[in-house]
Amino acid sequence: MMSQSYPIGTPGKPWGEAEKAAWVAAQVVQRSYFDEVVCQLEELKDYFDIVQYGLLQYQSDYPLYLLKSQNWQNDKPVALITGGVHGYETSGVQGALRFARDKAAQYTSDWNLLIAPCISPWGYETINRWNPFAIDPNRSFVPNSPAPESAAIMLYLQELGANVLLHVDLHETTDSDNSEFRPALAARDGTEHTNWNFPDGFYLVGDSHKPEAAMQRAVLDAVEKITHIAEADENNQLIGSPVVQPGVVNYDTKALGLCAGMTGAPYVTTTEVYPDSPKSSAEQCALAQVAAVTGALDFVHSQAGR
Question: Where residue 305 falls among pLDDT bands split at 50, 70, 90?
C-alpha cells in the first residue's frame, strides 16, 4: 500500500485557504503554453479560424483559444475535440493539435470542427491537474462553475448555439497520478485514498446514459493499430470501475461534472492513454489520440449516412 503522506495540510482535515495558498506557491512553470501550443495554432490560421474564447488572469494572463472550421455551415454536424482539461496530460493537448494539423482537412467537408486543444494552460505550464485554486476543472463542468477554465468553454459553446453531435475529450494517466495527484487530492479533501491502480494501456470512458458501445468499439479498433488496449484487472475493472466491454468503462459524465458531459452530444467518449508504459512512447500516445478522434468521426459519419 502506498503512503498517504503529503507535505501540505493535516491528515484527515480538509484544506483551508492557507493550505491552498501554500500549494499554489509551491507550483513552478516548467514549460511554455505559448511556445508549445499557441505557436502551433498560429501555423494553422490558413485552415481554421483561431477564436479567443476567454482569458484566464492568474499570475500571468492566459488567452484561451480554439480552432473553428472556416467553412462553417449550419447544416453540417458539429464535432468538438477537447484536450488539456487536465493541463499535465500532454498527449491530449498535442494529440488535438496533431489532429488539427494532419487529419482535420479530411473531415471539413462533412463536419463543422471545433478543436480546443488546451483548456487549462496554467495546468499545462505547471504540469498540474488542478488550477491555481486547487480545483479540478474536470469535475467543474457544472452551472456557475468554480473553475474559470470550464466556465469559459461552456459559455462559448452556449453563445455559439452549436448542436454538437460528437464530443471526444482527450486525456491520459501518468505515474505522477500516484506520486503527486492522488495524494494531493486526499490531502485537500481530508480523506484517505485507497485505489492506487491504473491501467497499462489505452482505454475509454463512455457515458452511462448514452454508452454508444459500437462507437467505443470503433474507436478502440482504430487505436489498437497504434498502441495497446488496457486489460481489465482481476476484478474485471479499469481504475476501479466495471468494464462494460474490453477497454471501456462508463461514468455518469454530467453528474460528475466531467468535460464529456457538458454539451449533451449523443456521441461522447473520453480517452485515456498511459505514456509511462514500457510498451508505449509519447509519440504513440499522441498518435493514439489522433486515431481516437478519426475513429469516432468515421463511425458517427457512417451512422449518419444510413
Answer: low
What contacts 68, CB < 8 A, 6 or more positions away?
A: 48, 49, 50, 51, 112, 113, 114
Residues 184/6, Cβ–Cβ less than 8 Å: yes
Q: At what angle do helices 17-25 and 182-189 cross, to 10 degrees?
A: 160
pLDDT per residue as tens digits for the range 40-60: 999 999 999 999 999 999 989
Q: pLDDT tens-digit profile of 96-114?
A: 999 999 999 999 999 999 9
Measured CA to CA, the distance from residue 233 to residue 29 in angstroms comes to 36
C-alpha to C-alpha distance for 294 and 287, rounded to whole angstroms: 11
User: Domain 17-304 classified CATH 3.40.630.10?
Assistant: yes
Residue 8's contacts (CB-CB under 8 Å, 6 or more residues apart) are: 15, 19, 22, 23, 26, 184, 187
Distance separating alpha carbons of residues 17 and 23, to the nearest angstrom: 10
